[in-house]
Amino acid sequence: MLNRVVEPGDEAGGRWVHRTGAVAAVRRLGEHGPPPPGLTARRWAGYRARAERADPARDLTAAHEAGVRFVRPGTAEWPAQLDDLGDGRPIGLWVRGRPGLRTWALRSVAVVGARACTGYGAHMATALAAGLAERGWVVVSGGAYGIDGAAHRGALAAGGATIAVLACGVDRPYPRGHTQLINRIAEQGLVIAELGPGEHPTPSRFLVRNRVIAALTRGTVVVEAAHRSGSLVTARAAQRLGRFTMGVPGPATSPLSAGVHELLRAEAELVTDAAEVVELVGAIGELAPERHGPVVPRDLLDPDTLRVLDALPARTALPADAVARAAGTTQDDAVARLYELRSLGHVERLGDGWQLTRQATTSGQERRNRP
To answer: Average pLDDT of 160-174?
Structure first.
């Protein structure tokens, strides 16, 4: 009943229900008299009008026929992290799918972003979600076109777990073009929503839905987002709730990455793959591998030998005494190191002089080109 009466995100209604209790709140809706403390007459009249039209028995029958269950706060399947939303906590959730919501939510990450994403964004979302799924993390998103759909597909392709949080009834897949995808998620994972069976989405419902995605997960990754993207609402909600907030950088000239870049400037964490995400949201010791460029033969030389090698010009030969002066060492030391370098293929002897081999010239150019 209350799920039909109190709109998602209605903190005034949530505060009243939490303080009064569900049974007492339903009983109060059927009584005459002034509105309860904290509720205006207009809001109270709206609640009572909705209560008159509500039919909980019909909702439960429709849910049962669609393989849907209703999960409420205080039960074993309720994810306790949703309580962080305070008075904005959902009255309950309609859940479609066999796995336990509470267990899956404990190890989950949200991957969200633009609907009209680029090929780069879709690729990154798919790769991130697949990598997270392979590491045993549940990927949560909103089931929409673009980044959301790519994230769900990436997790499913990796044989992993994914949850779609809808802004409509779980028995009414939206967008319709994702009906097959959402049905597949329900078969392999979970589809959840605050709204009852048959409810349709509205722009405001998409925005308040995002707070559930943020609260349900350990962290939120934004792949692509313009300045006014709804996915930034999810990221900001995650920040307010103390969750990890991450962004995937894109081209500086891309409007679809402008919102992400602004998010990164506001203390979000920059991530480029699943390993970096897990390093933030995972347990102690789940570290991403160190990043470094390719190792070239010159990198294996000790500093004194490298100084002798660097003393040789690119295209001419030098006698050993000239090499010693340029390297700042003795002639005997320079000669010993030149023979060592010759055995390694870096230099060759030409009469009384020494010169670089082609291998050393190429390696030196690569080394100088590196920042």
So the answer is: 94
